[in-house]
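Consider the following assembly input.
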Amino acid sequence: MNKFVKFGLPALTLALLGAGWWLGLAWAPPDREMGEVQRIMYVHVPLQWMAMMAMFINFVAAVTYLMRQSWKTDAMAEASAEVGLLFGTLGMITGSIWGRPTWGVYWSWDPRLTSEAILLVSYTGYLVLRRFVEDPEKRAVWSAVVAIIGAINLPIVWFSVRWWRSLHQVQSSPKTVDPQMVLPLRVSAFGMLALLILFMVHRYRIALAERKAEVALPEALPTDDPALRASHSSKVA
Amino acid sequence: MTSLTSLMLLAQVGSGRLQGGWGYVWACYGISVAAFVLYSASLWARRPRATDSKE
């Protein structure tokens, strides 16, 4: 494995997340109205950003797989869906905890929360589908289709706070936020990005190794070579 | 009239700042760190073994 991935990336992740969270918890001022509770932003918002990014990568990998079939893009789709689901679930949990002191409830059927819940359920379904289908080629094609359908919800989640103004606040911008809050948020977001890349690299290696083990019988299953793949696909069925 | 309505609405919102709440903050960071540690452990447990990592 690449030395940077093995040692450099974990060190970078710890340094950025440690610095970002320290800045957010100890250096940034409390919010004018939410007080100390607002410090949840430095973990909740980066989690949600990275979840959306991972799910978008899943969409791109799914489209790429359908255009040019390769176990590498299938492995990337699997890795991004699992890591995206982890970050999205944590984003929802932290958001729910944030909601209790500010909204008075852990959960509300607000458009943002509801669309996010549907998103998480659809990616859970995507991963369940991958577990249930044994044929790697059928699994890759079917899950790619499900991933593309599931990705329709991504812009709905993102724009829901603008389309239906309700309980969840709209996205802030550096112009509307205190600079002392912007810096910790940015550092935390880059730390979370490093963690996302780290998790995805390792999960990708696992998925690719599984695909290679499954296609170890070259006569039984297709390969990455389009010509060989075409000739093998007829034998799979 | 509009400004009066706005003022009445603002009066319902109230003013002031939430007091305390560090428990919620620590819960969020703690749950996230715990989940990351558990997921890292799951990745380590599922890592490709030497025999099947001929990439």
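Chain A is about 75% helix and 0% strand. Ask yourself how this observation constrains the way the partners meet.
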